[in-house]
Amino acid sequence: MDRWKGRVALVTGASVGIGAAIAKSLVQHGMKVVGCARNLQQIENLAAECVSSGFSGTLFPYKCDLSIEDEVLSMFSWIKVQHQGIDVCINNAGLALPEPLLSGKTSGWKNMMDVNVIGLSVCVREAYQSMKERNIDDGHIININSMSGHRVVNNTDIHFYTASKYAVTALTEGLRQELREAKTHIRATCISPGLVETEFAYRLFSQNQEKAEATYKSIKCLQADDIANAVVYVLSAPPHVQIGDVQMRPVEQLT
Length: 255
Fold this sequence. Notes:
Keywords: Oxidoreductase. It holds the Pfam family adh_short. There is one protein chain. The chain is of the alpha/beta class. The protein is 46% helix and 15% strand. The chain contains 8 helices and 7 strands, in the order E-H-E-H-E-H-E-H-E-H-E-H-H-H-E. Helix 1 packs parallel to helix 2 and helix 3 runs parallel beside helix 4. The protein starts with 7 loop residues before the first strand and ends in a 7-residue tail after the last strand. The relative contact order is 0.14.
């Protein structure tokens, strides 16, 4: 990770869970990290924690709703002014809403697509343009996907969410191909975790907290730090190594 010290990373959805763990880890490794989310206070608390821990990097909190393109574009403009641009983009932000295909609300479907697919794609485009205009040829774009982007589980609550994650799988491979056609050495990677013990299930089952708790008690889940460690592993690979997709499950997870 030495070659990334002092360089700039963007981590979306950095206020809690996986995003917070990734942002903290990169700061610990000496990077300048712009952490964005809708909840600014939680990122500010994390930034203070990084300072008190004596980490060599810095976390810069930024309030942004990824479902609103103008806010995303404003964020990239701010990054350009404050930090010249970004070298690493980690698209972690995402959400799942219990909206089945046969009875779900269109607004919920659109919300998932706006964040999980469109917001991610806007960040990918702007990150690449930021790297290109500064002649950064060793940048890295990492999409935090899900095992739901690789198989369909018989659970009506997450079928539409699953479709959005299949899109991330396709977008990441498409990105890799376009980067090759552009004759750049910028890398694209997908990290696809199985069940991770975060706030995810509590948000998905906000009307049934017992169901959320049962989800995490059923097996020994992955932890957010496990995903952060995977990000460090991917970034630590030699520049000539393209890690396409990291699939990781709890040992006890069946599907």
